[in-house]
Amino acid sequence: MTGRDDGPTTEADDGGHDHNFDTAADGGHEHDIEAGREYARECDDSDPLADFRNRFALPDAYYMDGNSLGPVSDAAEASLQQAVDQWREQGIRGWTESDPPWFWYGERLGDELAPLVGADPDEVVVGNSTTINIHTLIGTFVDALGPDDPQGVLVNDLDFPTDHYAIQSQLRQRGLDPDEHLHLVESRDGRTIETEDVIDAMDAHDVGIVFMPSVLYRSGQLFDLETITEAAHERGILAGFDLAHSIGVVPHDLSGISVDFAVWCSYKYLNAGPGAVAGLYVNERHFGEDPALAGWWGHDKETQFELNLDFTPADDAGAWQVGTVPVFSAAPLFGALELTHDAGIEAIREKSVDLTSYLIDLVDAHLADRGVSIGTPRDPAHRGGHVALEHPEARRISEALRDHEVIVDFRPPNVIRVAPAPLYVRYEDVYDVVEIIADIIDEERYEAYEAENEVT
């Protein structure tokens, strides 16, 4: 049992088991599971995005961790090299004479990102890190609440922790006890958050701001941003979102549904590199609010170098930039976005949905009886770009997968996150990964790795 020539064998060292997936039958699925590898190759042959894979340098045969860090593309590397060349050739003149000028990186990249989030260019800017952007936007909008408005912030108990750290910090700085003003929507099943529970919590607590992820980092649940925003606004509550796990793989319409603010990173599905500059969105109706973290890069650009000691914020989303744009952490995003726009976010989403559906179908057919279950919503309308595979030995299976050149990640207590990113993952890759997991479980190869209680 082998994969393509450019992938590792999945045979056991002693000759292995052939699971014969090509003959597996599950007629209830949309995908033709009975056709096995032949079907996967047919999907790849007809994939309109197939050629984009050749634009990426993949460090391993099966790179399924693009929801943590996307790989480098030729376009991203070229735009980074261009910035290095500009530094070499122009020195400080690069701030004004490079193409585009470094001075305007945040705004120019905001223009490029705006279509992906469904916003006007003035509402989007690149700058800071995701956590810094949460700090400044939550702080800004807590300050913007009226004296008689509820001061609480509504989050959920499955959030990525940095969101809570930042919000707690901003509340404390305003003399607000997080134990009293940070309200959690609790999950019913430990995997997902029900929209109706978010809405009920708006009524159950004194809430001035609701701040939710677009996609849960562990399970991959895609939230209903429109319904949450509409319900919040009906109650006089501001609605903000963390788009870290959806930007670049799920289309958004932030302005169209009147979201108040949003943040995101650029190193996952946008493939802009480790530590890439983050981005933010502020609806134009909030322009003029005082940024909670004022910094000189958020100053009005026309008068920034007058170096006045009084802060004059930009009259658009640029006001929420803080420090000088990190040129080498921003430059790759120009090239990365070229590929995203060339592919088209709608086409990316269409393939993403199909790849994750195919993965779920294969898991149901070939891994369910091996103790693997799906921890991600099966309805594509409620699913982001990755699938959570649950197994009691998830951590050790993840380690074994890496030694088979399958890059996934583990999230406690029992989740293997598999992200078949549409620009560089093939259908046959998904097929192979499921075969490899089956082999690891059948051969108990994970037993070669330390159990959790053995780790020192």
Automatic annotation (TrEMBL):
GO terms for biological process: pyridine nucleotide biosynthetic process. One of its GO terms (molecular function) is kynureninase activity. InterPro entries: Kynureninase, PyrdxlP-dep_Trfase, PyrdxlP-dep_Trfase_major, PyrdxlP-dep_Trfase_small. Its cofactor is pyridoxal 5'-phosphate. The keyword Phosphoprotein does not apply. It catalyses: 3-hydroxy-L-kynurenine + H2O = 3-hydroxyanthranilate + L-alanine + H(+); L-kynurenine + H2O = anthranilate + L-alanine + H(+). Keywords: Hydrolase, Pyridine nucleotide biosynthesis, Pyridoxal phosphate. Pathway: Amino-acid degradation; L-kynurenine degradation; L-alanine and anthranilate from L-kynurenine: step 1/1; Cofactor biosynthesis; NAD(+) biosynthesis; quinolinate from L-kynurenine: step 2/3. It is an enzyme of class 3 (hydrolase). Residues 14-43 have a biased composition (Basic and acidic residues). It comes from the Archaea. Its EC number is 3.7.1.3. Residues 1-45 are annotated as: Disordered. It holds the Pfam family KYNU_C. Catalyzes the cleavage of L-kynurenine (L-Kyn) and L-3-hydroxykynurenine (L-3OHKyn) into anthranilic acid (AA) and 3-hydroxyanthranilic acid (3-OHAA), respectively. Belongs to the kynureninase family. Homodimer. PANTHER family: KYNURENINASE. This is Kynureninase. It comes from Halovivax cerinus.
